[in-house]
Amino acid sequence: MLVKPKKSLGQNFLHDKNIIHKIINASKISSNDQVLEIGPGTGNLTKYIISQKPKKIYAVEKDKSLAGELEKQYCNKINIIKKDILKIPDEFYSGKKFLILGNLPYNISTKILSNWCLNNKLNVSKMILMFQKEVAERILANVNSREYSRITILSNWKFDIHKITDVRPNSFFPKPKIDSSVLEFTPKTKIHAIKDPKNLEKITKVFFSQRRKMINKPISILFKKLQFNYKKFNLNPSDRPQNVDIIKYLKIVNEYESLGS
């Protein structure tokens, strides 16, 4: 498929068969799987997904010209959704269990992942996703590290995550100026319960909007005049947001919800 990449959509088409095989091998697609591919582009990964004969394939492609070419090429083998992935309603995910694969648009990759982590209607067996390497390092970051961030907390709340491989720029056309990484997300068997995922989004946003400041500031914003018991959470008011581990953030959300804030 001869297509001129659109810079406005951040299109970089993966063509490296070695990387494609690593993604397919890690996905372990079965005949019962409903596969959701994000940004199929020129269909280089799509044709390998089809070869695994899953139960159903959905492909989300915002570029209408690419979507049209994919429809011509693969006819009734895939279900093309001609939309921006960020504009697909939550209801689309309801009642389905997806295996999600995708080379996410780098400029919105964290937003896509955040939305999925906070969407209680999303049910997945696995997600294998490609990110800018710098973003992948933030997703995989350890507490007390410079890379530790909101996306670390949101993604590791629901998923066990590991890196499959790094990807060099020459694996794409056109070549991006940065390295990439492919990550595998497996749902945790036991997820720390919170009433409303939007509270986790809110609390991490307040904390990390001033990541270099001490946590007494975001705590005072969130809990206002209520007395926050730092000892209960084994915290110090002088800690910084990157010093607070994921479990503590989730427990802070529980406290916030129990106090009806």
Furnish the topology, listing elements before pairings.
Layout: E1 13-14, H1 17-27, E2 34-38, H2 46-51, E3 56-60, H3 64-74, E4 79-81, E5 98-103, H4 109-118, E6 124-132, H5 133-139, H6 150-158, E7 159-167, E8 172-173, E9 180-187, H7 197-208, H8 216-223, H9 246-258
Parallel strand pairs: 2-3, 2-5, 3-4, 5-6
Antiparallel strand pairs: 1-8, 6-9, 7-9
Short summary:
The chain is an alpha/beta fold and 261 residues long. The protein has helices at 17-27, 46-51, 64-74, 109-118, 133-139, 150-158, 197-208, 216-223, 246-258; strands spanning 13-14, 34-38, 56-60, 79-81, 98-103, 124-132, 159-167, 172-173, 180-187. The chain has two domains: 7-187, Rossmann fold, CATH 3.40.50; 197-258, Helicase, Ruva Protein, domain 3.
Provide a descriptive summary of the structure in words.
The chain is of the alpha/beta class. The protein has 2 domains: 181 residues, Rossmann fold (3-Layer(aba) Sandwich); 62 residues, Helicase, Ruva Protein, domain 3 (Orthogonal Bundle). Helix content is 33%, strand content 19%. It has 9 helices and 9 strands. The strands form 2 sheets. Strands 4-3-2-5-6-9-7 form a 7-stranded mixed sheet. A two-stranded antiparallel ribbon has the order 1-8. α2 links the parallel β2 and β3. α6 packs across α9. It starts with 12 loop residues before the first strand and ends with a helix. About 2% of the residues have low confidence.
